[in-house]
Amino acid sequence: MRMVGCSGSDYVISEEWHWEVDATVVSWGVSMCMHRYQVHRFLLIPFLYALLMLSFLFMLLILFMAMGGCATVQSKPTAYEMNMRAVFKEDDALADEIGASVEGLLGVITRGESLDGYVDQAEQDRHTFFYKALRSLAAPADEPGRTPLVLKSFSPDGGQSYLISVAFMRGEQIYKIIEFHAYRDGGSGGYRFKSPFDYRTRALQVQDFGEVRYYSTRPVDVGKAKAFVDFKHRLEGLLDVGSDVRRRELSYYCFETLDELLRAYGIVYDCTRCNWLKEDLGFMDAGAGRFLTGSDDERYIFAYTLDFMQAFDDADGDLYPPMVYGIATYFGEYGLSGHDLPTLKAQFRQRLEAEPGIDFLEEFNKGRGSSVNRHFTHFVICSFLCKAVAQRHGMDAVVSLVHSGRAGERFFTQIEELLGVDEAGFHDLVVQLIGQGSPAGS
Fold first, then answer.
1. Helix or strand or coil: residue 372?
2. Residues 155 and 274 in one domain
3. How far apart are CA 61 and CA 183, in angstroms?
4. Residue 217 main-chain phi, psi, to 5 deg
5. Does the pTM exceed 0.85?
6. Which of 131, 193, 232, 405 matches a 20 to 30 Å C-alpha distance to 266?
7. Measured distance CA(256)–CA(295) in Å, rounded
8. In whole angstroms, how far apart are CA 354 and each of 184, 310, 349, 351?
9. Would 388 be classed as within a structural domain?
10. Integer angstrom CA distances of residue 311 from 66, 284, 297, 314
11. Residues 323 and 438 placed together within one structural domain of the fold
């Protein structure tokens, strides 16, 4: 070591020696760094390889989960979709069980197949109106993709059964909304279905008049109820039905509107018409053991007469419906209007005065395409003919005229036999029957 000089304990190092030391230190530091780099390099390579493998495995996991998600979507029910936030039940296992049964039911409905696998035959017989409605929901071949949408589900009895509302779609639009009553199948498991009719009518007021039991949302009009029972007995006697039909028990459901009637069956909404199945505002069901009307009328015989005669006096299939409605109008009034024969004849006289060139034969043959004062012309004319035939030959002749063939094949032949008028004279006959110039038209 070279020293230039010293003073006491202080040493003075020459500048040359100073640079030598610095160079040595730097060289030693670089050597150490290079050594560490070599060590770290050998340690880093396996680490990077392990990280790469973990990343690869993670990507595989993501891909597997995605494929699993796709499989889950594909396994969802194809017969229906669920509305936003709609669930069958909060319990997932129970919801899946209900959903499987709903999927099966909606599948057979949209395909137009038998309901027997999901609905008991006795239930179908009790509510034929409802199941006729369901069968009309089979998806037409030219309207693909009409997938039902489950709107809601709730239990009215603490989980014993469920009321499930389903919208049947046409594209993005709601076509019909139907409510089903689902209950557990005690035999094979799963759920079976029925109309919600019994549940929806459970709180109706009940009152008996002879063999007729009335169900209604309001107190029954006693006078009208008794008048209906009297008519029922008269019609049974007129048709000379068997003893098993005479005084047969009848449940009469009197709803204030047709909408209430349809909802009772589970037909919640229909976008095309209020009267979905082209029924009049009353019809029979349950093997003619139940009559229902949405006319708010305890004596709505206009629809009752047709259904009763079809059930008990149409073995040959030759009832002529316009004459049946003629009988109903003759005994009571026309439809919902409540117009009796004198009123109807006055309306026809007014129409004749307004249109002197009208041909009542031509109008009659138009069927539902012709009306006078919003009353179907052929129905009203048949009520005039009913009175004329009854006055000349009695009600047995009227019943014979009713059996003129489903399309009226023998109608004009019988008119000629009973009243001596052929088709060429039909218009003049109607003019005579409405009593042109007569106040009562009788």
1. strand
2. no
3. 42
4. -85, -5
5. no
6. 232
7. 6
8. 64, 38, 9, 5
9. yes
10. 61, 9, 22, 7
11. yes
Token readout for 180 is 């089903």
CA 148 to chain centre: 11
The DSSP 8-state label assigned to residue 140 in this structure reads P
Helix (H) or strand (E) holding 63: helix 15-74
Tokens in use for 374?
């919003």
CA distance 342 to 440: 5
Q: Does residue 295 sit in the same domain as residue 191?
A: no
Asked if 181 and 253 sit in the same domain, the reply is no
Residues 98, 192, single domain; the answer is yes
CATH number for the domain including 277? 3.40.30.160
Helix 341-354 and helix 377-393: axis angle, to 10°? 120
Residue 219 lies in a domain: yes
The reply to whether 8 falls in a domain is no
- The answer on 234 and 196 residing in a single domain is no
What gap in Å lies between CA 102 and CA 118, rounded to an integer?
9
Domain boundary among 313, 336, 363: 313
Tell me how many domains the chain contains. Answer: 3
Same domain? For 192 and 216 the reply is no
Residue 150 is part of a domain; what is its CATH number? Answer: 3.10.450
- Does residue 303 fall inside a structural domain? yes
Radius of gyration for the chain, computed over Cα atoms and rounded to the nearest angstrom: 43
Helix and strand counts by DSSP (H, E) for the chain: 15, 15
Domain hosting 137: range is 81-200
**187 and 210 share a domain?**
no
**Helices 377-393 & 426-433 angle (0-180, nearest 10):** 80
Instruction: Please say which residue of 141, 173, 200 terminates a domain.
Output: 200
**The pair of three-digit structure tokens given for residue 101, joined into one six-digit string:** 């049964």
Q: What are the C-alpha distances in Å from 272 to residues 90, 177, 380? A: 35, 12, 27
